[in-house]
Amino acid sequence: MITLYSYPELFGVADNNGYGLKVFAFLRLAGMPFAHRHVFDASAAPRKQLPYIVDDDETIGDSETIIAHLIAKHRLALDDGLTAAQRDMRHLVTRLLDDLYWVMSYSRWKDDAFWPSFRDALLREHPSLTEEGLRKAQDFNAQRYYYQGIGRYEPEAAYARGTADLQVLANLLSASDYVFGNSPTSVDAAIYGFIANILFYPIDTPLRQFVVAHPDLVRHCTVMHAAVGSTARPG
To answer: What class, spelled out in words, does domain 84-228 have in CATH?
Structure first.
């Protein structure tokens, strides 16, 4: 039995972190039965990072490593039809999403224009959290952003970087519902993990403004929402 450990939901999205939602969506698309355990404490996770899975007696962290493990061990066919060039594109998209992650996280924890709305939503939906605890998490994230680099950007420059990433995704999705045709693959799960965590949050960041203004991004997210069985609706 597979158990997915990831951050809790927010605004009806199954995980308020893009990487955990990516694994959730992949498992749903692949038709794999799994238990989903929502946690805030990552101390038991490999590298102290969420998400991770426990698959029988194996514990695996990192979303890409998790997906590679699941495909190999359970002979999942979701990506079987991909060409070598498509697999290269999938790799490039996952790296682009790594960049988008930092801007999306910055918009929640760093930007004073949006932090209060994000904090209040967490406190409202997860009563076990405290304002003091969230402030400590904010301080921790501020250190991460500084050393990664995005924390040294002014908001306008940070969002310009994020919307450039989103424009590339919008271009990729302009021809069909999914990246590589009429059927979803793991790259669609990856994109959904991040776009859903922008679109379905009623916090009007520049990232959300961009997504809402691009029908191809909205269409992909909505189609994926239905495919993975989520119940969230745009705010």
So the answer is: mainly alpha
